[in-house]
Write a structure and sequence with these properties.
Blueprint lengths: L2 E6 L3 E10 L2 E11 L6 H4 L4 H20 L5 E5 L1 H5 L3 H12 L3 E3 L2 H14 L7 E7 L4 E7 L12 E7 L3 H8 L7 H16 L10 E5 L1 H11 L13 E4 H11 L4 H7 L1 H4 L3 H17 L4 E4 L4 H13 L9
Parallel strand pairs: 1-4, 4-5, 6-9, 9-11
Antiparallel strand pairs: 1-2, 2-3, 6-7, 7-8, 10-11
């Protein structure tokens, strides 16, 4: 029987409908809507009425679509914006009252674990050390692991260390950027905040990890790089590799563009993201610099897939132990 997951982030609310057979998931439908729930949270500490209204409308739409695809269960989880908002209880109660949906606020540890699981599940050749990078709207998660391919479907067992940085593309754009293109001072301020955050969060990770990008910024950059005519997508796309030189090229180009010009690069991928995308790419660039990596792999799977993997892990019996 199909079931659905919804990931409520700082910028988006993402739906995934899947069905499972044994320990495998089949993705049936994926949808992304831009809610900008974290608008003003960094400055004011609260989720505003307009953002709440956008969330309710989006969740109503996602709920109907999930039911249309035969989903008998909808699991909804919130991350950075809801964790940080002082009025989160009121927001959760409003959603429950209006839509009969319960939102679980994920801890930073759980968000990191299941984002890692989702990112790694797109590849069956991940052996040795790896580092999953999830640039979100409110925070950036760094999760180190080893040999994840050996841990399907309970990928979090491969995690060796993690760090959650209180910087994301929405938060840093609101805090640092004064317009598009940004001023030199704004670029310096954003870069300094990123470098300081990375320096203050040392990870126990191999000197040569495979870096895997997951979620909005990484997948949007892959789509921009491939061009607007590409058929690569989040539902059935395979992994994709970008070089650090590719990231630096797009960083430099984006810093010279207006929001409308960024949107024109790939109208589909940039819809709802164009004004915060530049900071997301700066984050990716600084992370690759910090870990001295020449390439990174882009996973088409993100936290909504990880939430489905969590359900699968809880319902899949453990493999039998073979005695000698």
């Amino acid at each position: 029987m199909p079931f659905a997951t919804i990931d409520i982030g700082t910028n988006t609310a993402q739906l995934l409908v899947v069905e499972h057979n044994g320990d495998a998931l089949r993705r049936l439908h994926a949808a992304e809507r831009f809610v900008r729930l974290g608008e003003g949270v960094d400055a004011n500490g609260e989720i505003g009425t307009d953002a709440q209204d956008r969330l309710l409308a989006t969740l109503q739409e996602h709920k109907q679509v999930a039911h249309d695809h035969g989903a008998d269960r909808i699991v909804v989880a919130g991350t950075s914006a809801l964790r940080d908002a002082t009025n989160r209880k009121a927001v959760l109660e409003r959603v429950q009252r209006k839509l009969d949906l319960t939102i679980e606020i994920l801890s930073g540890n759980d968000e990191a674990a299941w984002s890692f699981a989702a990112a790694c599940s797109a590849f069956d050749d991940l052996t040795g050390p790896c580092l999953v990078v999830d640039v979100g709207g409110g925070s950036t998660e760094l999760v180190a692991g080893r040999n994840p391919a050996a841990h399907h479907p309970t990928y979090p067992a491969a995690i060796t260390d993690r760090a959650s940085l209180d910087i994301g593309c929405v938060r840093l754009t609101e805090r640092c950027f004064d317009g598009h293109p940004p001023s030199p001072d704004a670029i310096t301020d954003a870069t300094t905040l990123i470098d300081d955050a990375l320096a203050g969060a040392p990870l126990d990770v191999s000197p040569t990890p495979t870096v895997i990008g997951t979620a909005g910024t990484a997948t949007a950059l892959a789509r921009v790089h491939l061009g607007p005519n590409s058929t690569w997508n989040a539902l059935h796309g395979d992994g994709f590799t970008l070089t650090h030189a590719d990231v630096r090229h797009w960083r430099d180009q984006l810093l010279s563009l207006t929001v409308d010009e960024i949107l024109a690069l790939h109208p589909d991928a940039m819809a709802g993201r164009a004004d915060v995308f530049t900071v997301g790419v700066i984050l990716l660039d600084r992370i690759l610099c910090h870990y001295d990596r020449a390439t990174f792999r882009v996973s088409p799977y993100e936290l909504r897939h990880g939430l489905a993997l969590r359900i699968l892990a809880r319902t899949t019996p453990p493999s039998p132990t073979v005695s000698s």
